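Reminder: ligand-aware prediction takes two inputs, not one.
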Amino acid sequence: MRLIRAENYQDVSRKAANIIAAQIQLKPYCVLGLATGSSPVGTYRELIAKFEAGDLDFSQVKTVNLDEYVGLPKDHDQSYAYFMRTNLFDHVNIDQANCNIPDGMNPDTEGECARYDAIIDGFGGADLQLLGLGPNGHIGFNEPAEAFAKGTNKVALTDSTIDANARFFASRDDVPTHAYTMGIGSIMKAKRVLLVVNGVKKAQAVKDCFFGPIRPQAPGSILQLHPDFILVADEDALSLVRDLL
Ligand code: F6R
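Here is what comes back for the chain with fructose -6-phosphate:
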């Protein structure tokens, strides 16, 4: 694990965007694994600024998103497909035909998981997978469990995840209860993993996942085994491990 310490969220976002920009510049036809949620929004903003400055070309980039809520159509304003369009895709010259995301409206669970795994395997895994970290240590929607999930799967979201996401919906009851997510095995197929994390609310998860034992109860801990894992964390997120650094 390579730790890049950042002062605050803005600094996390700038540092992460620089790494992604370098990836695109070195391999313009790269496959980016992308995440939603609040953590990567600043990173996407920085990437858009680099595009607008003429420093980045997304025309050959392909993407695979981590996850999607089950039951939300692509045009629902809380779907992850909508999030990606409004936070990144609509603002850069990416070909949206090259952007992949699980289909939350596909009722055929097995078929959807197999379809998505075939896309990831067809790419040979992402060149760079961007991740956020849940307050309970989840990556994608791989919640704390008894075992690490290998491929794409349909998960029931935990109460704590539903609570954490309720802020984006009119009420807690509107938060979907299930999601399709890349499995831990699919995430680990990425050649490089870049996780962005900020804030004291994530400090315990950072300690459990990256400074403790590798176990499925702390799903992000598996990343300690990845040969090219970069953690970009701000000082608040590192507040419980400062004496270990
Ligand atoms: C998002 C995802 C989730 C989030 C995590 C952190 O695609 O898969 O694992 O990265 O829940 O969310 P935020 O960034 O909103 O704190």
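The helical segments are 9-26, 41-52, 80-87, 109-123, 159-165, 184-188, 203-210. Residues 62 and 98 are 5 Å apart (CA to CA). We will return to this case in the review session.
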